[in-house]
Amino acid sequence: MNKFDKNSFLGSWLNIVQFKTIQNIKEKFPFYTQLDVMDCGPACLRMIAKFYGRHYSLQTLRDRSFITREGVSMLGISDAAESVGMRTAGIKISTEKLVEEAILPCILHWHQNHFVVLYKVKRNRKGKLFFFIADPASRLVCYGQKEFTPIRFKKRSFMSFLNRIGVQKKSHYRNGE
Description:
It is a single chain. By secondary structure, this protein is of the alpha+beta class. Helices cover 36% and strands 24% of the residues. The protein is built from 6 helices and 6 strands. Strands 1-6-2-3-4-5 form a 6-stranded antiparallel sheet, with helices on both faces. A hairpin with a 5-residue loop joins strand 3 and strand 4 (129-134). The longest helix is centred in the N-terminal third of the chain and has 20 residues, at 9-28. The two termini are 22 Å apart. This is ABC-type bacteriocin/lantibiotic exporter with double-glycine peptidase domain.
């Protein structure tokens, strides 16, 4: 974490600053929880739509993504996004390419059975990567590269979104900028 003792004044102060910084980042990204086990895809799409300044109910996005008892597919999410004026691209990509090329926020197919939003990738001064995830089943979380890559996302599918109507919102979540 940091090189200062957490019980020292400076160590405590640094922990508070780090916490507040993470909280500020998290508060800026629109977050919605899923209401049902099968709602992860539409909930992720709702977050991305809100990021681009659009407001849709979860039910509207559920209807447009052709949700079934098994949930929703990437194609269903893509169709729903296209129906509300976004352009999508669904591809399989390595973590390295994701960091270098993905337009954030994007939806990741997590563990091959769940959808989450990757809204920020940050590299610290030591070169370590951190992935900021909006998980509609739980909360906003941050994973280090060791936690993120091997289990959750190793050459998996992701879907990127562009706002087709109006000017694309520039992501201020890219690499800490």
